[in-house]
Structures
1.
Amino acid sequence: MDWNQLVLRMAVILSQLLIFLLLAPLVIGWARKVKAFMTNRQGPSLWQPYYDLAKQLRKEVIVSENASWIFRITPYIVFVSTFSVGLLLPFFTSFVPLFFVGDVIAIIYLLAIARFFLALAGLDAASAFGGLGSSREMSLSAIIEPAMILSLFTIAVTAHSTSPGVIANEISSNPNSFSWFAPSHLFAFIGLFIVALAETGRIPVDNPATHLELTMVHEAMTLEYSGRYWAFIEWAASMKFLVFLTLLANLFFPWGIVPEAQLFSPSAVAMGFGIYLGKILILTTLVAFIECTTAKLRLFRVPDLLAVSFVLSLIALVLYFVLGGRA
Amino acid sequence: MFSISPQLLDQAIEMSAAFMLVSSFLVLAIKRLHVHVRLYAIQSLFLTAVAVCVGLSGEKHIFWVAALTFLFKVIIIPALFARLIRRLNIQQETQLTLNVPASLLIAAGLVFGADYLTRTILTTGNGVELSRNILTISIAVLLLGLFTMVTRKKALTQVIGFLTMENGLFLTGIAIAKGMPLLVELGVFFDVLVAVFIMGVLLHRINETFDTINVEKLTKLKG
C-alpha cells in the first residue's frame, strides 16, 4: 500500500471519529428543536447539548459511598464501547476503518456491553430507582435484541454480506434502481426503526425529556451520576442515537455514499458528506415528529410494540426468500 | 398514453400485497375495535392498489374492480362498522384467548406454512414467480383472517377476520386470475355487502340479548 493510500485512510478514520463525536450532540439538539417547533415553542438553542456537556465536564463528581469500582468505571466503558462503534460504521464513505475487525454483529454486541455495564451501575449505587431502571432495561433489551439482529440480517442477506460497508456499496450500486422498493427491504427498515426508538429511549417506549419515576428507563439507571461521569454517559447516549440513525440511513438508503475509489476527489467527498447530513436530519425530524404525535406506551404494552418490530423483521426475512431473492 | 415498466408494476403489486399482509398482522397486534375497522379499510385500499396496478399492466376491465373495491370496502363497509360501534356503545377493546406476542409468533409461523404450501403447488419457471409470491401472500392473509376469527373473542373482530379472509381470496382473483367476468365480480361485491349488513344486524341482536358481543357468553342459554 502506498503512502497516499495510507494518508487517505488515516484522514478518513480521523474525520469519521470527529464527525461521530461532534455531530452526535447536534443531532439531539436538532431533535429537541423540531419538537419545540412542532409544539409552538421556541425551544433551547441548537447548541444547547454542547453547552450542557461542556458544563458537566467541568463540574465535580459526587459518588455514593455505597458504590463500588463498577460505578466509577462504567461511564468510561459506555463511552468507549459506543465510540468504537463509530469505526465500524460507514458514515459518508463506504470505506469502513475497522472493516477487518468486525461487522454488524460486533456493532450489536458493542452496544450490548455498554448496556450491560449501565445496568450493573444502576444496581451498584443501591438506589431503588437504579434497580428499577436496570430491570426494565434488561427485560426490554431481551426483546429488542432479536428484533435488531433479524432486521440487520435481512439487509445482510440482501447484500450477501454482514459488513456494513459492503452492504452500503452493494445496495447503492445495485443496477436494479427499484431494489429498495421491495417489501423485505421496507419491513426490515420499519423493524429497525422501532428498534432504534426503543434502544435510544424515544417516546413510544421511554421519554427522554422527563424524570417521572413511573415511566423512566434510561434516566432511572443514570440518576446517580453527576458531573464528568454524567457527561460521558449522555454523550454516549447521543452517539448511540447517531449510530442507529446512520444504520438506518446508510444500510437501507445508501444513495450518494462515496465509494473508496472516489475518496481522492474533494467534490465527491463534500457531496457525500452533504447527502449524509441531509439523511440524518430527515430521519431525526421523523423521530421528533413521531415523538410529538404519539403518546408514550404503558410499560406493559411496550413488549407488544417490540413484538411487532420482531415479527416485521421476521416477515421481511421470510418475504425475501418467498419473493425469490429478487430484492 | 404513458407507459410504466412492467417490472416496476410487478414490484408495486408485490409491495401492496405485502402491505395487505402487514395490515392483517396489525389486526392481531392491536386491541382497539375501531382501529381494526380502520386497518380493514387500509387493507382494502392496498387491494385497490393491486387492482389498479393490474389494470395498468393491460387488463382494462380490472379498473372496474378497483373502483368497486374502493367504493365498497374502503368507504361503505368501514363506515357501516364505525356506525355500528357507535350505536352498540360497546367496550372498545377486544378480548384475547392468546396474548399479542404469542399470536404474532404463531401468525409468522402461518406465513411460513403458506410459503411451504405454495412451493409445493407452483414450482419455478418463467413468469411463475409473481403468481407464486401473490399466492403465498393471499393464502397467508387468508390464514391470518382465520386465525383472527379463532383467537379473538369479540364478534366484531371475528367479522373483520372473515372479511380479511375474503380480501385474501380477492387478491388471488385479481392478481393471478386477472379478475372474473364483471357480472360475477358485481355479484360477489353485493354478496359481501349483504353479508356485512346481516352480520351487523346479528351483532346488534347479540348485543341486545347478552349485553355484550363477547362470543364466550354465547355458550350459555338465555330464555
2.
Amino acid sequence: MGVGKEKSILKWLSRWKTEHEAMLEDFKYSLHLLRRSPLSMVGLILISAFVLIAILAPLLTKYDPIEQDLQSRLQPPCWDNPFGRDQLGRDILSRVIYGSRISLRIGITVIAISATTGTVLGVVAGYLGGIIEEIIMRITDMFLAFPSLILAMAISAALGRSLENTVIAIGIVAWPTYARLARGLTLSVKEEQFIEAVRSLGASRKRIIFSHILPQCLPTIIIQATLSMGGIILTAAGLGFIGFGAEPPLPEWGVMISDGRNFIMREWWVSTFPGLAMLFNVLGFNLLGDGLRDVLDPRLRR
Amino acid sequence: MNKENSLLDIRNLKTYFYTYKGVVKALEGVNLRIGANELLGLVGETGCGKTVTGLSILRLIDSPGKIIGGEIVFGGEDLLKLSENEMSERIRGKKISMIFQEPRSSLNPTYTVGSQISEAIRLHQRVDKREAFERSISILRQTGMPDPERIVKEYPHELSGGMAQRAMIAMALSCDPELLIADEPTSSLDVTIEAQILELIKDLISKFRASVLLITHDLGIVAETCDKVAVMYAGNVIEYGDVRDIFKRHKHPYTEGLLKSVPKLKVSGELYTIEGTVPNLITPPTGCRFHPRCPEAMKKCSELKPPDFEVESGHSVSCFLYLDQEKRE
Amino acid sequence: MNFRAFVLRRLLLMLIVLFGVVTITFVISHIIPADPIGAILGPQAPDELIEKLRHEWGLDRPLHEQFINYVWNLLHGDLGKSIRTNRPIIRDLMERFPDTIELSTASMIIAVCVGIPLGIISACRKDKIPDHVSRVFSLFGISLPVFWSGLILLMIFYYRLNWLPSPGPYSTHLRPPPTVTGFISIDSLIAGDVGLFINHLQHMILPAFVLGFSSMASIARMTRSSMLEVLRQDYIKAARSKGLKERAVVFNHALRNAMIPTVTIIGLNYGSLLEGAVLTETIFAWPGIGSYLTGAILYLDFQAVMSTTLLIAFTYSLSNLIVDILYAFLDPRIKYG
C-alpha cells in the first residue's frame, strides 16, 4: 500500500513538472540571473543576517535589553559592551539586536495586512471595472495624496502611542500602492487569451479572480513587498524618532536614535549604532529588491 | 564586374556578440561588393545577419557586439581603420546613409521632422538654420511628400508610416551620399505604400547617382527592384550575382530551397519548406553552416568552410559542389 | 485628447482628491481618537471642563454637522486654534511655511544638480566603474534614515570639525530681517543685509544637503534607468547614422526624451522632501511647518496636527498636478496627440 502511494505521488510530481515546464525553466533562469548579480547577493546576505539575528537574539547577547544600570549610564564602547551603554545604562548592542526583532515584526505584519487588502481591492477594481474601479482608484488617490510619513504621523497621533498602533498606521499608509499595482496588473492580465478561454468554460468570477488572475500578479507584488520593506522600517523608525512609534522601553531603533539625540555630541554611540543597523538592513532590502526587479524585467532577460 | 571598380568592398567581415549565453558569431567572414550606381539586394531569412552587416558598414554595432575582423573598403580606405570621429564627420550621413525598418520610431518623438532633417544637413554642410530649413523642405518635396511646408513643422507621431519613411529617406539623402543602406524599409508598410516607396528609392538613386544596399527578406521586392543580389545564410553570403543569375540560374542549394519555398499562385499542393531549422549561432555547425540541412551535403562540407567559387562572370557561389566548375578568367 | 482637455481633467481630479483628503483628515481627527479632549486635558480633568470644551468645540453635534462645519471653516481659512501657541493655526503656518519651502527648494536644487549628471554618467558608462560607484552611492542614499544622517553629520561637521554652524536658520546673535515675503533669504537681501544672507545660507547647507541626499539618489537612479531605456531606442541609432557625435546624441537626443519621466520623479520626490523636512527641521531647529508638526504631536495639539497635515497634503497634491501637466507639456505625443 505504501509503495503504491509513493508511486502515485511521484507520478503526480512528474506530471506537474511537465505541465509547468515553461514556468520552471523561467524560474531556473531567474535564479541564474540573480546569482550573477553580486549586489543582489549582498542584499540577500544582509537580509539573511538580519533575520538570523532577529531569531537568534537571546543567544547572541547576555545582557537584557531593558535592564537598567544607572551606575554605568552613558558608558563608552568597551570590550564588555561593544556598543556602549545608553542614558539608562542599558547595553546598546543587545538593544540593537532585539530591535531587529521589532523591525522585522513591524515589517512583516504591515506587509501582510497592506499587501493582502491592497492586492485584493486592486484586483477587484481591475477586474470588475466600471464605477467600482473608479471609486476604489479615487480612494487610493486620496490616500496617496499624503506623504506616507505625514499620514502615519497623523494616524498615530490619533490612535495613541504603541507598537500595534504603529503597525496599523503604516498599514493604512501602505495599502494604496498595492491596490494600484494589482489593478494595473489585472488590467493587462484580463486581456490575455486564457482568461477568455477559462470564462468560456463557465468559471465563476470569483474563481477567475482567485485562481487565475491573482497568481499572475504574485511575482510583481512580491517584488514590491521586498522593495517596500525598507521604506516601512524607515517610516517606523521615523515615527519612533519623533516619539510616536513603539513605546519605551521597547528597543525600537528609531526610539533609540531619538534617545541619543541630546548626547550626540559627546556620547555619540547611543544614536550611531542603531542607525548603522538600520542602514544596513534597509540597504539589504533595497539591494535585493533592485536585483529582483532587474531579473524579472522582461527586456533584460534576453 | 571588375573588383577594382566597386564602390564598397567588404572582405571577410566578422562580427560577434558577447552575450551571457555565449558568443553569438553573427557574421563569420562576409564578402560583399557594391558597384557605383547599383542596387544590391541583400536577402535572407530573419536572423541570418543581414541587418548586422548593414550596421557593421557604418560601425553602428553596440555592445555586446563587436566587429572583430575583416575589411570594409570604401572609396579606397578601410572603414574599420578609421577613428570614431572620422566616421561621424566624413562617412555617416555624408558618404553613407541608412534608413531603418520602423520609420516612426527611427525619428526622435520630441523634435519636429524639419528640425531633424535640418540637423542632418547642418552636420555636414556649412549652412545656417534658415538655409538648412529651406533645403529640408526642398528635399522632402523631392521624395514626393505632399505639402512639405506643413510636414516640416510636425512631429513624427503625426505622420503615417509611408510619410515617415519618406521623411527618413529625405533625411538620409539630404547630404548627397554615395551609398544608401536601406534596412527592410518597407516591411512595416502596407503593400501599396511599399510599391510607392520602392519606386521612390529607385527614382532617387538614379537622380542622386547613388548606390543602394537593400536589406530584405522579401524575394519579390528583390526581383522587382534590384540589379544584383547577395543571398545570406547564418552569417555568410552564400551566393552573389545578377538578379537573373540568382532567379534563373541559381546554384547554391539554399538559394534553391529559398526560391522553392515562395508560394506560387497557380501551383497547388504542399508548401515546400527547407528541412531542419536555422542554426544556433553560438554553436554553429562546423564547415559550411548549411550542411546539416543540405540535400546535397558531402563529407567535405562538415569539415571545411567553402570559399567563393566564381561560376560565371559576376556570379559566385560558396559551395563545394562547384569546386571544379570555377570559371577560369 | 488634446492638452487643454487633459489639464482640465487633471484639475478636476485634483479637486476630488482634495475633497477626499479633507474627509480623511476629518475622519482621523474626529472618529479615531476615543476621546480627544480627555487625551489633551488628562484623566484628572473635572467633568464640567470636559463638557464645556466639548460643547465649545462642537464635538457634541452629530458627525455630519461637524463635517460641514469643518469644511466651511476650511474654506474660510479657519484652521482652528493651537492650544500650544494659543494663536490661530493658520497664522502659525503662514509664518513658518516659507522656511520649509526655502529648505525644500534648496534641497531640490542640490538633488537635481547632482542627481541628474550622476545618472547620465552612470547610463553612458554602464557596467563600468563610474556606474557601479554611482549605483552603490545611490543605494546608500535611499537607504539612509534622514534623521540619523542629520544627527551624525551635525556631530561631525559642527561639533567635531567646526566647519559648519550650529542648528538654526541663522546665528543667535543676529536679528531676523523685516518680513516682506517671509523668506529669510529674500527678505535679508531686500533689507540689504548681506551678512545675514550669507550667514543664513551657511546655516542652510547642512540641512539642505541632508534633506536632499535621498532625493539626489532617487533622481540619479531614475535618470539612469530612463536614459538606458532611451539609448536602446531606434531613433538613437538613426541619429548616430546621420553622423552625430556621441556627445550630441546623448545631450540633444537622448536626454530630451529621458528627462520626461525624470520630471515626474522630481515631483514625487518633493513629497518625500516634505516628509524629510519634518524630521530634518526638528534636528536642525529650523522654524518650518515640519518642526511645528512634531511639536504639535508631542503636545497632543490635535487641531494643529490635522491642519498641518492638511496643508502638507495640499502642497503635495499641487506639486503633483504641476508635474503631471509639465509631463504632458514636454511630451509632444501627448501635447499634440
